[in-house]
Amino acid sequence: MKKELISLLLLFLIIFFAVSLFSFHAQDPAIGNDPLIVPAGIHNLFGLVGAHVAGFFVFLFGVGAFWIPVILSLITLWYIKEKSSRVMWLTPAGGMILMICTGAGFFLFKDAYAFSGTLVPAGGWVGSTVAGFLLTYVNSLGCMIVLVFFAVIGFIFATGISMVTLGTMVYQKTSVLAAVMLRELKQFSGYLGQGIEQMKSGWQSYRMAREARSMTIDMPRALIQNQTSTDSSQLETGLPHPDTSNSKGARDQDEQDAIDLDDVFSPTIVAPQVDTTEYVSDRVLADIRQPEAFKLPPISFLEEKVKIRREIDTDKLQQKARILETKLNDFNVKGDVVEILPGPVITTFEYRPAPGIKLSKITGLSDDLALALSAVSIRIVAPIPGRDVVGIEIPNDEREMVNLREMVASRDFIQSDSMLTLGLGKDLMGRPVITKMDKMPHLLIAGATGTGKSVGLNAMIISLLYKATPDDVKFIMIDPKRIELSVYNDIPHLISPVVTDMKKATNALFWAVKEMERRYELLEENGLRNLAQYNDMVREKNRSRAARSADDPEHETGDDLPVSEPLPYIVVIVDELSDLMMVASKDVEFALTRLAQMARAAGIHIIIATQRPSADVLTGTIKANFPTRISFQVSSKIDGRIIMDQGGAESLLGNG
Prior knowledge:
Number of strands: 13
Shape: elongated
Domain FtsK: 430-641
Subunit structure: Homohexamer. Forms a ring that surrounds DNA.
Helix content: 40-55%
Family: Belongs to the FtsK/SpoIIIE/SftA family.
Main location: membrane
CATH architecture of the domain at 437-651: 3-Layer(aba) Sandwich
Membrane topology: Multi-pass membrane protein
Structural class: alpha/beta
């Protein structure tokens, strides 16, 4: 309450001094005026009180008195911010120095200045005294330098703004403004140069056409007649020949020939053809379409490694099972290992706890079990979905290498009818894990550096390349690291080269948003729900048109023309989201959210990978729209909970 009252009082003083000083009049009654002069009326807006107050401070400080409202405003600001030291002496002291230096500085040039129809003394009593004292020892230039120096000190005291900070800020703003102006100037000069080149080429074309026309018109008429008759004899057009015996007819024929030649050599203006079967984006995609005879890469491109059959040591597995039961029993957890599932990398022990045992007691013993089994780490799946057992995953002493060729050559991958089939790896039993991205529909991948995240991403890309032609699937690849995805620059599936500039990456994402909106308009116009239905409709219309053309080649109407070519699926791949979020987090989050929410029906899918799954990178909005997530080994439990909404990712083995 006290603070509000003092703030209101200071606000009133600011208004009072501002109105009184700026309505000051030299003839108003005030200190320093001749008492014998009786004014006709008071000019000050605050009346007699304002006239006396304004006259007193102008008499003391002259022009410098106009700093008083500014100083009071700063005092109010510091008081509200509870900076007591500034309120007590720094701001008033700096303001006093500013008022004295301002008045003395103006006094060096004139004794008084005209203001609102009256004269204001330049320095007042204090300013004129200080200026006179300085002029006794230094000249006018030296006096001005001294006053400017002390005025800067007063400004720093009053405002608290450092000159270094102010200079740095001005330099930065000026540099940014200069860079923007230079960029715009370069762009304008480029446009200007293109315009000049177009004007030059157009003028040259016009001049050549005019010279050719003049040469033709100036040719002897007999030569034209001979040339015309020769051409007519060589080319049978089926037209009746004119009667050359008639002089008038011959003369008309000559005139007609001259007109035809003039038309031939005159510049021809061709109206642009309107493309009624494709949109702009279709033409862009058509420029990069490959021939229909495109063949998928053979399996032989992938290296075939000799698979060494790992012998399963049943005795050792039974021994580990007994150690598990014994160790859990030591912690009063009763139960039995009911099944052992050895896999290529880990072995799963299915443990059925006794009735009355809480799962939380088992999940909290992962470190103790790892110590008992001398394992790197242990992951506990409690419970296994659809089962009454707990899965305890223990890494094998010898791991099998998962070969990409095994996944691509698997029956599930080959027989999959989806163009967006991904080979993810092998499950616990060593079976290939094949999934369809159009069912996901978007994928979020996280993992620490060196855990196999980039290898997994490359395996997914190669899976798509082995399944789809450039007409079926297109890619937009964003690679902040510049080296991970650059190997795909020459593949025909790319809509644009791999984007490595993060400023251009936002443009690529917004292009995908615009393409999604355009496809939704096509679906709405045709009453369809997804891209697959649209492509089926286009193929069916093209087949029916081809059938009608085969039955009746002369019958062709506007309805027979194809609506468009089938639209390809688009997969947007971002290799490192954190680098992209550092450049333009709001724009990137908006674009990814729009795509993740709506792009599935439009045939646009997203794969995002990041090695820093922190809350500022994987925001709540992004996570909410990416239900399908893959986590490699992460560096902390917090990162694992952010990416998977549960623990366990920090206990993975790494290397995939």
